Amino acid sequence: xxxxxxxxxxxxxxxxxxxxxxxxxxxxxxxxxxxxxxxxxxxxxxxxxxxxxxxxxxxxxxxxxxxxxxxxxxxxxxxxxxxxxxxxxxxxxxxxxxxxxxxxxxxxxxxxxxxxxxxxxxxxxxxxxxxxxxxxxxxxxxxxxxxxxxxxxxxxxxxxxxxxxxxxxxxxxxxxxxxxxxxxxxxxxxxxxxxxxxxxxxxxxxxxxxxxxxxxxxxxxxxxxxxxxxxxxxxxxxxxxxxxxxxxxxxxxxxxxxxxxxxxxxxxxxxxxxxxxxxxx
Length: 281
What we know:
Layout lengths: L1 H22 L8 E5 L4 E2 L6 E3 L5 E7 L6 H10 L5 E4 L1 H6 L1 H9 L3 E4 L14 H19 L16 H9 L4 E2 L3 E2 L8 H15 L2 E6 L3 H16 L3 E7 L6 E3 L7 H9 L15
Helix pairs in contact: 2-8, 4-5, 5-6, 7-8
């Protein structure tokens, strides 16, 4: 069994990293693949644990697409033989299935991000409505992808709740928060966005990065970001579905959830989410 798992890993790594050789030594490429199974809840902005990334390892994730800006993001990733995970809004996937299929065909992992991304978060909805947002979004993404998408899930605005986390776990949906973000929901130039993100990344040293492929400024930044990652010795890790939960790293002493603090202020009457919860993207 161990030999079989090793062969599977080598095959996945060859598939992900192989194109980097075709691009040449100056391409960022993919340094390794992490299989994610079970129903972990990861990302230090929200949860007290994250993926066990080594120093200078990063995971690129994009939310809210597909959109008119997505092709430019895909072109930039392809130029560097880089792989990312896209968390799609269900109705957007339904409207642009050709982009969903393109993401998968180009080696990226696709997950879901609810059906409609309610502005006040799933946490603010009745439980049944929140679960329907999760399920309908997942169904739409699966349909648009020809059933080739993962069941990875990210809560809109990280607005989870204990009951919604239980619902996701019961459906074997890994829940992804993030470790850092570029705050690209705020209007800024692509140069400013790159400077802000790299400042945060240098400070963190590693992590899951949140971006949005619905913003022109972000799409324009991606080529420069990939070049900066390569130049500063960062390694790209690609996430794929797997049979078991991945190795995790616990939050450092004194950790607190940024997203839970946000929702605690916004929805004082709502119960706090287990382990943490909330944010602004």
